[in-house]
Design goal:
Largest sheet: 8 strands, mixed
Number of helices: 12
Bound molecules: flavin-adenine dinucleotide
CATH class of one domain: Alpha Beta
Mean pLDDT: 95
Distance between the termini: 34 Å
Low-confidence stretches: none
Radius of gyration: 21 Å
CATH topology of one domain: FAD/NAD(P)-binding domain
Shape: globular
Length: 398
């Protein structure tokens, strides 16, 4: 590998791996450094939206991803107690996308697919168990100081991508602000392998439930159901994540005589934050290193995938002779979409789904049912929440 020409990527989460694979397939040598000793087996993201699947067709990842996941052609918001619901049908997006459905598939599965594909390429050096301690750049290239097994190494390359998540060392090293704040509530995630689909009438593969004793989502992934919630004032996290609370929660979802087999419990803090820029000289940010949004609607990783593929093509174009000013367009495009589309759409959905008062919920339900009943509004709503509208806006940003 030509060391001087390579792109160095910090982080092999989904965004670092997409960037690695795309750059390598575009003929660019890549060195990717990941702190974890193996492919991150993260439970966080479970939803892939149509534009991500359309984009990942380019180098054949989509068919592998689709084979690993469960399609959700419809999703619903429903009232736990009355079973009243509003159903949104992504079938109305046929003709707008080659994938008119959400794909339910954990981000760890994408990671594993990408690592297997990357292993077939001879222009990638993917190193696990390697922690980046410092980064720097000058007019000729970038320098990364990394530690592996107690040994420190100084590595050089032409460009640097920080795909190193919310606490990005790349972002901090170049003094880039991360503007915004955390949301007040803690999010919880509980997973069981009980087949709710065989028991609960009317259940879809993506369901957001309003419930008097706490709203919850129920999302199908291969072989399991994930249930998300938000900690309410006065609730203690260790209580909510206890065996007894997980059992109590699922018993209200579907009462049964035997206990549930709980396969995962975790908590997360959501933020709305945006990096002041996504590019500084030869260094770039992508994914959570660049932007964070409420996970409602499942858009964070999706928008990071769009960042990574957009950036890979721009790096290719600059290496082929395009003016490096093209990199400023990366920030203009992806930062605008992150704030105006992703953060805003996620927050709108958050406000609907976290609705607590009975009367307000009823009013929301009628509003949403009116949208679903009107074909033009139904399609417009799904063009937004399925990220197609925002994705198309990118090309209109000079
Ligand atoms: C509860 C929850 C549910 C979610 N659901 C969805 C969803 O359905 N759909 C969706 O689109 N998004 C979803 N998200 C968001 C999604 O999980 C993130 O946007 C996504 O993980 C971002 O990927 P990333 O690669 O940018 O960062 P990360 O996944 O955080 O990966 C960063 C990687 O960098 C490595 N790293 C960090 N620092 C260093 C260093 N110094 N040296 C070496 N390596 C380093 C880390 O070990 C890690 O592997 C959800 C988030 C939450 C909390």
């Amino acid at each position: 590998m030509a060391v001087a020409d390579r792109v160095i990527i910090v982080g092999a989460g989904p965004i670092g791996l997409v960037a690695t694979y795309w750059l390598a397939r575009l003929g660019i040598p890549v060195l990717t450094l990941e702190r974890d000793t193996e492919t991150p087996s993260d439970m966080r993201a479970s939803t892939f939206h149509p534009p991500s699947m359309d984009l990942m067709e380019e180098f054949g990842i989509t068919p592998k991803l689709v084979a690993a996941g469960v399609p959700a052609p419809q999703w619903q918001i429903r009232v736990h107690e009355t079973k009243e619901s509003v159903i949104f049908d992504l079938g109305v997006l046929k003709g707008e996308t080659a994938h008119p459905y959400r794909l339910q598939c954990e981000q760890a599965r994408l990671n594993r697919i990408l690592v297997a594909e990357i292993a077939k390429l001879d222009n990638v050096d993917l190193r696990f168990g390697t922690e980046v301690e410092a980064v720097d750049q000058d007019e000729n290239g970038v320098t990364v100081t990394a530690t592996r097994g107690g040994e420190t190494e100084v590595l050089t390359g032409r460009y640097l991508i920080g795909a190193d998540g919310a606490r990005s060392i790349v972002r901090k090293s170049f003094g880039i602000d991360f503007i915004g704040a955390p949301y007040p509530e803690t999010l919880t995630l509980t997973v069981t392998d009980f087949p709710f689909e065989d028991h609960i009438p009317g259940l879809l593969n993506v369901n957001y439930h309003w419930r008097e004793e706490g709203n919850y989502s129920l999302m199908k992934v291969p072989g399991a159901w994930r249930s998300g919630g938000r900690l309410r004032p006065g609730q203690d996290l260790s209580d909510v994540l206890s065996d007894a609370a997980a059992e109590r929660h699922f018993q209200t979802v579907w009462p049964k005589s035997s206990p549930y087999n709980i396969i995962y419990r975790g908590s997360y803090r959501a933020h709305r934050r945006i990096a002041s820029t996504f590019n500084v000289g030869r260094a770039f940010l992508a994914g959570d290193a660049a932007h964070l949004n409420d996970p409602q609607g499942g858009m964070g990783m999706n928008s990071g995938i769009h960042d990574a593929i957009n950036l890979a093509h721009k790096i290719r174009a600059v290496l082929d002779g395009t003016d490096p000013a093209l990199f400023d367009r990366y920030t203009r495009q992806r930062r605008t979409i992150a704030t105006d589309e992703v953060q805003q759409n996620a927050e709108n959905l958050r406000n609907v789904i976290k609705e607590k008062e009975w009367d307000a919920r009823q009013a929301r339900l009628r509003q949403m049912q009116a949208i679903a009943a009107d074909p033009a509004r139904h399609k417009a709503f799904l063009m937004k929440t399925s990220m197609i509208e925002g994705f198309r806006k990118v090309e209109t940003i000079a």
